[in-house]
Design a protein that fits this description.
With about 240 residues, the protein is α/β, with parallel strands linked by helices. The protein has helices at about 20-40, 45-55, 65-70, 80-90, 100-110, 125-135, 160-170, 185-190, 230-235, and strands spanning about 10, 115-120, 140-145, 175-180, 195-200, 220. The chain is elongated. The protein starts with 7 loop residues before the first strand and ends with a helix.
């Protein structure tokens, strides 16, 4: 039996379609300036610590501000951490730039008749602001943000993939999911039978998937977004 025809391509957002540092680092600077005003600690000093924490532990560790306060001798101050989180999420970017060839690739996918969607984690207002600032909104029929259903449903949970497939009215074997982070992006999609593609970009680009459980590994890996067309061709698209 021949494989199903691919009808839909879903994308992750952060570090898949653009370099997330464009958002992350200015938001860190806003937090650092807040701390300078509250604690009198030089903003550049705390900013450099935040950048180093992300370099060592990743931006999704969930304990970035805790580690910063430990470093500067203010931990545990839960009230201060809550305020830092609020300041971080109050940042709104004025300009974000997609990775090279993203716009051209999305345009060509639509021209070829593929339906496009987004499946992403994060605060809904901020994720939608990012898409708008990137000028990518118009490419996607639907956007699924896992946090709208509860933070416990963030990837690798399968729920956001199920919702996306249902909204697009496509079967798992008729769809592709493209992401960058093998620690969370592909597990749910693999479990459902979607074709998974990893773009080696962003802070997780150097992770060796051979060291991961097979359920977390993408079926394909590419170095540039436009390489997706070679995979689509191999799949009969």
């Amino acid at each position: 039996m021949s494989p199903a025809k691919i009808k839909a391509v879903f994308f992750d957002l952060d570090d898949t379609l653009y370099d997330q540092r464009q958002y992350l680092f200015p938001a860190f600077m806003k937090v650092s300036r807040y701390l300078e005003g509250r604690l009198g600690i030089d903003a550049k000093y705390t900013y450099n610590i935040l950048v180093e924490i992300v370099r060592m532990f990743g931006s999704a560790s969930g304990k970035i501000f805790d580690m910063l306060l430990q470093k500067i001798g203010c931990y545990p101050d839960k009230t201060l951490i809550k305020k830092m989180v609020a300041v971080f999420y109050s940042y709104r970017p004025r300009r974000l730039i997609p990775y090279p060839r993203v716009i051209e690739t999305l345009s060509e996918l639509k021209r070829r008749g593929y339906r496009l969607g987004i499946i992403t984690d994060g605060y809904p207002e901020i994720q939608r602001t990012k898409l708008k600032t990137l000028n990518l909104e118009g490419f996607f029929e639907m956007v699924v943000i896992s946090d709208e259903y509860g933070r416990r449903f963030r990837k690798p949970h399968v729920i956001s993939y199920l919702i996306a497939l249902e909204k697009m009215h496509v079967k798992p074997n008729e769809s592709i999911y493209v992401g960058d982070n093998p620690l969370k992006d592909f597990y749910g999609a693999n479990k459902l039978g979607m074709t998974t593609i990893r773009i080696r970009s962003g802070e997780y680009a150097n992770i060796n998937v051979e060291n991961l459980d097979p359920d977390y590994r993408p079926k394909y890996e590419i170095g540039r977004i436009e390489d997706i067309f070679a995979i689509l061709k191999s799949l009969g698209g």
